[in-house]
Specification:
Helices cover about 20% and strands about 45% of the residues. By secondary structure, the chain is α+β, with helices and mostly antiparallel strands.
């Protein structure tokens, strides 16, 4: 009898523990929002560059959930070349993301290779340091006001097999996490 009451006691404690810890309701759901922007820079030497504005409100996933967004956090970003003048290269291919004012940089990333074809259909992850991630997340903390960015693509000291003019079309991609209340 002592053995069965011990088993009964263990089963009851386990069952009570499961009920209190296993039935928690979800308070939030997280949604990754991919942000993609194609940028074409065309011009003559020495540098070619172009800027494009990116706004969260351009994306249905953001607009569909705007009333439930509690926070936005940076996850990752990447760049790849779509097309370029044959042999396009320079001393640097540089991606910069600015606040919506187009003046204050959030991060600047110089590609390891300055040859545009090295990134043709091969995304390069833009590895940010912790300071850059913190700066970006601080900007995103006020997402109701700060929901736009300016992305810049620049090739410094550009040359190519043909040209000028020189041209590069690349795609900047960023993923942010939306914390949504249920």
């Amino acid at each position: 009898m002592k053995i069965s009451s011990k088993y009964f006691f263990v089963v009851m404690i386990t069952l009570v523990g499961f009920i209190y810890t296993g039935c928690d309701q979800f308070e939030n759901v997280f949604l990754n929002l991919p942000i993609n922007k194609e940028i074409t820079a065309t011009g003559n030497e020495p540098d070619i560059f172009e800027r494009e504005t990116i706004c969260f409100t351009d994306y249905d996933s953001f607009n569909d959930n705007i009333d439930d967004v509690e926070a936005i956090k940076y996850v990752t970003s990447a760049f790849f070349t779509i097309t370029a003048t044959p042999g396009l290269q320079g001393t640097g291919i540089i991606a910069t993301l600015y606040r919506g004012d187009g003046i204050t940089p959030l991060f600047t990333f110089t590609m390891p290779s300055a040859v545009a074809d090295d990134y043709k259909n091969k995304p390069l992850k833009l590895v940010l340091n912790q300071q850059q991630i913190d700066l970006l997340n601080n900007y995103l903390a006020d997402y109701k006001t700060n929901n736009c960015f300016v992305a810049e693509l620049r090739v410094a000291n550009v040359t190519g097999v043909s040209g000028p003019p020189y041209s590069i079309t690349g795609q900047f991609e960023m993923v942010v996490e939306l914390k949504l209340k249920l």
